[in-house]
Amino acid sequence: MNARRSRPRTTSHRLGFAELYRRGRELELLHRAMGFAALALVTLAPLLIVVAAVDPLAHGGFALWLVDGMDLSGRSAHALSQVFTPPRKVLSTTSALSVALLAVFGVSFAASVQNGYERIWRLPAGPWHRVWRQTVWLIMLMAYVYAQVQTRTVLQGTPRILLSMALGVLFFWWGPHFLLSGEARWRDLLPGALATMAGLVGLRWFSFLVFTPLLVTNAVSYGPVGTVLVVESWLVGVGFVVYGGALVGRLLCERFEDFDEPDGTAP
User: Fold this and answer.
1) Quick one: which of 98, 72, 67 has its CA closest to 85?
2) Given this model, what pLDDT does residue 57 score?
3) 21 in Cβ contact with 97 (< 8 Å)
4) Cα–Cα nearest to 211, from 38, 69, 106, 103
5) Mean of the per-residue pLDDT values for the chain?
6) Closest CA to 150 of 138, 133, 167, 173
7) Assign residue 262 a region: left if phi > 0, alpha if psi is -120 to 50, beta otherwise?
8) Quick one: pLDDT at residue 61?
9) Would you say 3 and 183 are in contact if contact means Cβ atoms under 8 Å apart?
């Protein structure tokens, strides 16, 4: 464990909404969320679609995860599935070079998430040879998405909600710790994981109220482009929650714990 130094409790620990807003601006939270959405749609979504095409259980993969995450049903779920469900020939028409490029782009997405966590915890950028951590995190992200889809097909009601929440907390607790090479302590990362999952639950409720009717009208008015625009807007919300939840977790640690700043703090 790296040496740590205690951060003195000063007026900076009067952490309310004003401090959260200030740190969000410092982090460029909205800008990062938009970058998260763009990278997720352009790099991560195609990779997950290819992975879903080899799903031996044929449970819908990426499209079903979007339907579940956005709490869609009926016509809105059908409109989204038509755009993101992989065609039957996707594997036969996908070359090894294409898969390799998708993997490289996926790692760039993981690197973007890692950089966001480093900024939140004020750590310097890790060396290039830690790219293996980004690769492992990307694999675990796809496993997490797959597991969330399986909970929809295996369980219903309260057991499914509890299992889904537990999986989410574990992933968003482990992910920052792994990407930051253990520079942030487990106990400091737990509030951020809980805040992230709370934010995703709220986003799901917002999606049910706003994106469900919007998806239907956009699909009718603009076709697949309208559907993609709505999904992109939802992904911006996901990025905002992922980074915002981690930031809220750090602020909670500073407010309620005897917080120790990780050594090697970035300027």
Assistant:
1) 67
2) 53
3) no
4) 69
5) 81
6) 167
7) beta
8) 60
9) no
Q: Give the type of residue at 262.
A: P
Q: What is the C-alpha to C-alpha distance for residues 90 and 174, in angstroms, rounded to an integer?
A: 32
Tens digits of residue pLDDT in 220-252: 788 888 888 888 999 999 999 999 999 999 999
How far is residue 165's CA from residue 186's CA, in Å, rounded to a whole number?
18
pLDDT at 117: 95
Q: Are 219 and 161 in contact (CB under 8 A)?
A: no
pLDDT in tens, 34-79: 999 998 888 877 777 766 666 655 555 667 778 878 888 788 888 8
What is the C-alpha separation between 34 and 64, in angstroms, rounded?
A: 23
116 pLDDT more than 80:
yes
Closest CA relative to residue 103, chosen from 37, 36, 51, 177: 51
Report long-range pairs for 154-161 (Cβ below 8 Å, ≥24 apart): none
Phi-psi region of 105 (alpha: psi -120 to 50; beta: other; left: phi over 0): alpha
